[in-house]
Amino acid sequence: MKEKTIPKAQKVLIVKSERKLYLIRNGHPYREYHIALGKNPIGPKEREHDQKTPEGNYTLDFKKPDSSYYRAIHISYPTPAQKEKARKRGINPGGSIMIHGQPNWWGWLSVIRQRFDWTAGCIAVSNGDMDEIWQAVDPGTPIEIRP
């Protein structure tokens, strides 16, 4: 069976309140995916272990094929300004925020898992959706995460 070709995204948009990830090309969404977020999804990430998904503008800066989840694409959180704000408050802003598939060997549970916010702050999709996103996104692609 031949894998379908997905056009390259020029931007990724996450709308947390909709639980949606959109691939954007020429200013318009051309694919959308259901997402699960951190267990505490309201508001922006401020500190390590707050279970929140960041909000703001970042870059998808590298791909991690050997993740403990089915594929992962790293988000450039925290920004230098977020690091400085955390430093002034004496807290760790956290990091290692990714778009990823399901935990390895548990992909079959995505039908259930994706109904709930279950990550530590990452953005989770089904493994099939991750295959499409992986193909469409190159390192350097901008990502906007809205409330």
Count of folded domains? 1
Q: Based on helices, strands and strand pairing, what is the structural class?
A: alpha+beta
Cross-sheet strand order for the largest sheet: 3-2-1-8-4-5-6-7
**Superfamily (CATH H level) name:** L,D-transpeptidase catalytic domain-like
Beta-strand content bin: 25-35%
Radius of gyration: 15 Å
Taking the sheet with the most strands, its summary is: 8 strands, mixed
- By CATH reckoning, the class would read Mainly Beta
SSE sequence, one letter per element: EEEEEHEHEHE
Q: Runs with pLDDT <50, length 5+?
A: none
Helix proportion of residues, in percent? 10-25%
Instruction: Write down the oligomeric state.
Output: single chain
Query: Count of helices?
Result: 3
Account of the 3D structure:
With 147 residues, the protein is an alpha+beta fold. The chain contains 3 helices and 8 strands, in the order E-E-E-E-E-H-E-H-E-H-E. It has one domain: L,D-transpeptidase catalytic domain-like (Beta Barrel). The protein has an 8-stranded mixed sheet with strand order 3-2-1-8-4-5-6-7, with helices on one face. It starts with 10 loop residues before the first strand and ends with a strand.
